[in-house]
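quick one: adenosine-5'-triphosphate bound model?
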Amino acid sequence: MIQTKNLTKIYNGITAVDNVSLEVPSGELCVLLGPSGCGKSTLLKMINALVPPTSGEIFVNGKNTHDIPVELLRRGIGYVVQNVGLFPHYTVMRNIGVVMKLLNKPKEDIEKRALFLLDLIGLPRSYASRYPRELSGGEAQRVGVARALAADPAILLMDEPFGSVDPLNREHLQNSFTEIQKTLKKTVLFVTHDVSEALMLGDRILLMQEGRIVREGTPGDLVFQEGDNFSQAFFGSEMALKLLSRYRVGQAYTKGMKIQNAACQPSRVGEAIPCLVSGNMPLSEALSLMIINGCRELAVSGDGFPQGTLSFESLLSYFRKGAPNVQ
Ligand SMILES: Nc1ncnc2c1ncn2[C@@H]1O[C@H](COP(=O)(O)OP(=O)(O)OP(=O)(O)O)[C@@H](O)[C@H]1O
Ligand SMILES: [Mg+2]
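yep, here:
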């Protein structure tokens, strides 16, 4: 668990973080969302003892961080630094294994784990021997994520971890991370200024403005409940579409309905033949397929999902039931 009480940071008379009290319960992925300069990184840096607070307190697993030796605190927390911060004179392998080495893990374990993490972040294993200067910005950022995950810490502080990764790899990382989180249930404070990313990943979202938390709730709460002008403007009028990528066809479809001529590939606009989709497809993709194919229904099958239908109406009624939460 991470907790802050009345946490404030003032830099040369400018208040970067203003009296923030927050709590991230164990196992929750909490997103800190807000525009540039609102104090997100400063908040994370204070939790990881990189920046001393001007006032207020921080607790990690119930202990005041003031009373925990800094090295011990940092070893228990995986920290993805904004703009990477890899050690330039270490190889990728050594960068990923740096905390495991501090924890005196055997060399073979470190190497095995580093290779596993390279697979996970979608980089070739041959990259293990490269140096940070030989990586693109997005590749280096992914190595930063691997480094934070390496020692399997219970707590992760992630500062715009996928910020400079291209859209395809970003989606791959977001999906991999969602999968990891489902099983490992780490306590995560995840910073982003990207509304889509926040709505897709967060169990809960804290919206920051000028150093303060101005709104909080589940992604569904934030989309379906009215917020103030800043919040409405920040989330934008497409927020419901962005929320769709969080949910899968398998959560909203109707079982047992039979569609004639179901097993066809997506066809071009105007053809009313339904497409066959997997229950694992994000609802955003399913809606996109309906629009491209000019159809109101998709046949659902595969990946252990019984046959059924996702219709435009079933999609609407899924959300009408209230803001659902991912299981
Ligand atoms: N070391 C520093 N000295 C003085 N002011 C600072 C320092 N670090 C940050 N600030 C200021 O504190 C405020 C919050 O900065 P912070 O880096 O926390 O923002 P952020 O929300 O992470 O922004 P971004 O999304 O651009 O990364 C900004 O006004 C910034 O200029
Ligand atoms: Mg920042």
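The chain has a mean pLDDT of 88.
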